[in-house]
UniProtKB/TrEMBL annotation:
Family label: Belongs to the ROK (NagC/XylR) family.
InterPro entries assigned to the protein according to its UniProt record, in alphabetical order: ATPase_NBD, ROK
Species whose genome carries this gene: Alloscardovia macacae
UniProt cross-references to Pfam families, sorted A to Z: ROK
UniProt-listed Gene3D superfamilies: 3.30.420.40
Protein name (Swiss-Prot/TrEMBL): NagC family transcriptional regulator
Domain of life: Bacteria
Amino acid sequence: MTSQRSESMPSGVRVGIDVGGTKIAGVALASESTDVLAEYEVPARQGSEALVEDVLSVVRALSDDPVSIGIGTPGRVNSSTGEVENIANLAVDYVDLGRLVAAATCVEVHVENDVNAAALGVAAQAEAASTVVCLSIGTGIAAGVVRNGVLDRGFSGVVGEVGHVPIEPHRWPCPCGQVGCLETAGSGGAAVRLWPHDTPPMPAIIRRAHDANDPLHMQAVDVRDTVIRAIVDIIDMLAVTVDPEKIILAGGMAKTGQPLLDEICAELSRRAEGSKFITSLHLDDRLALAPSGVPVGAIGAALCGKN
Ligand SMILES: [Zn+2]
């Protein structure tokens, strides 16, 4: 994505900020559409003071006078108060992000977790679909659920934390304190841990698993199957609990692209063999990759601001 600072500094726009581990990226949306009028980003820095400064600098570069500001961020987010705890990649233990940005801009600010923000952005791109799940496969794996354009947060805000269902047969320990969480196998972080031979791991794992002459072929088959089965367990769970019209794969591992989608669809069809029930779900038809090059996280954050 190029850093595009708007020369005209549009007013009356909705600003959305996507807090990432390496950059703070923002968009300005026309107030009644999802058209991106301007984009701007700065490299992410460590610490809560730097985070607030960086968010403010991106907001100010995008608009002098936004009608709303939405922020999507990793960490444990209280979307009612705008407080955020434990953004591990940015060394932030706690930040009163919503209040600090609102006080500096005199604009209403809504803070949402990054998976939910991406889900709103993805759902806006797939606007024909009634219920959309965005399955974000990055360091961890989690889903955001959007029903008719509205985020489903559930009672305590853990809707979509499917990575912490502890049914993975290897019984590896998870940072959440359980053992056997699906995230310990079906995530980008797991692929990095299980496959130290290549960076990024997933494209290489898939390529080597299809090459019988590769010296690491058998190990690649084993790791590929472990990762893909855990992801498909999660897709199955989302299908029967949420029953979405679309399941959109996003996050770092989704950048593997079509080869990843092909592996997931192959596992889905293996499971459908002999099961009229699974066949009838047509899950492969509902799966898609998030559009590449579209800042869905920042767009979704701007839409959170509207909500
Ligand atoms: Zn866990």
